[in-house]
Write a structure and sequence with these properties.
The protein has 274 residues and is an alpha/beta fold. It has two domains: 4-130, Ribonuclease H-like superfamily/Ribonuclease H (Nucleotidyltransferase, domain 5), CATH 3.30.420; 135-269, Helix Hairpins. 57% of the residues lie in helices and 13% in strands. The chain contains ten helices and five strands; from the N terminus they run E-E-E-H-E-H-E-H-H-H-H-H-H-H-H. The protein has helices at 40-57, 73-81, 91-99, 108-121, 133-166, 170-173, 180-188, 200-210, 216-229, 237-269, and strands at 7-14, 18-24, 30-37, 60-66, 85-89. Helix 5 packs antiparallel against helix 10. The longest helix is centred in the middle third of the chain and has 34 residues, at 133-166. The chain is elongated and about 90 Å long. The model has no long low-confidence stretch (mean pLDDT 91). This is Transposase. GO terms for molecular function: DNA binding; transposase activity. InterPro entries: Transp_IS110-like_N, Transpos_IS110. One of its GO terms (biological process) is DNA transposition.
Length: 274
């Protein structure tokens, strides 16, 4: 077990563009402050300054990063790959340390100092930072998937708003607004005007190109509902055609991207031991 007095503590407050590092000794004395950009070429500069200070003082450097798996992941990976000891500091611990001061202060240098203080006080209980590439990549894929799912909900809500104006009874002939046949129909016939002189037989043949199990009853039901709904034509209809077809294209692209992401997630899951 390492003795606290033999170490140079480097607390780092991490941000998207820059990182602030504060070097401290075991008595919480601030020795030096270093600000670097969040890029590998700057990581080496930080390590060189820390090594210089630790060599002068005869101490071994140890790094504490507040959430080593967020903005500081690249720095954590670089430090570990270059043989440095890196501890992961839970943001809640650094927050509690800041609040414990008689006068609450909030600036990056003081935040880094608080991270260093947590590193000193809880040296033997803090976990080592272990930013694994497969875990990080999986998290990025899952985040991307969540965004795509939210986009899909937004696109479907927008499509419903347009379709319910043109086809008030659309839910009677398409249970899912984004089904294969439904998507083809909205893109080809964004309003009943485009169905003029279209027969049930012709519509059924088109649907069978999309789905072989389509029945003639589906096409007949659509034409009957359109007739019973009455005239839904409004001014600026051309602009609404564009909105409808644009939303369909967005949904189609979203579905393609989602399918691709699911394949990537399946592939990366194979890299895990469980």
């Amino acid at each position: 077990m390492q003795r606290r007095e033999n170490l140079l503590y480097v607390g780092i407050d991490l941000h998207k563009e820059t990182h602030t590092a504060v070097m401290e000794n075991c008595w919480n004395e601030k020795l030096e402050v270093v600000v670097i950009e969040n890029k590998p070429s700057e990581f080496k500069k930080l390590a060189e300054k820390v090594n210089r200070k630790s060599s002068i003082l005869g101490l071994n450097p140890i790094y504490g990063l507040e959430n080593a798996y967020g903005y500081g992941r690249s720095l954590a990976v670089w430090l570990i790959e270059n043989g440095y000891i890196v501890k992961d500091i839970n943001p809640a611990l650094a927050y509690d340390q800041r609040k414990s001061a008689p006068m609450y202060r909030k600036n990056v240098e003081y935040d880094a100092y608080c991270v260093g203080t947590v590193l000193i006080n809880q040296l033997h209980t803090l976990p080592d930072a272990k930013p694994k590439d497969n875990e990080w990549t999986l998290a990025q894929l899952v985040n991307r998937r969540d965004l795509l799912v939210k986009d899909g909900i937004r696109f479907k809500n927008g499509l419903h708003e347009q379709i319910s104006m043109a086809y008030p009874s659309y839910s009677k002939f398409f249970s899912e607004i984004d089904g294969k046949c439904a998507m083809y129909f909205w893109k080809t016939y964004p309003s009943p005007v485009h169905l003029q002189e279209k027969t049930a037989e012709e519509l059924t043949m088109e649907f069978k190109e999309i789905s072989r199990i389509t029945k003639k009853d589906k096409a007949k039901l659509i034409l009957d509902c359109v007739k019973n709904d009455g005239n839904t034509f409004r001014e600026y209809q051309e602009s609404r055609y564009f909105i409808t077809t644009s939303l369909v294209r967005d949904l189609e692209h979203q579905k393609e991207e989602l399918a691709g992401l699911d394949k990537e997630i399946e592939k990366i899951l194979l890299s895990f031991d469980y």
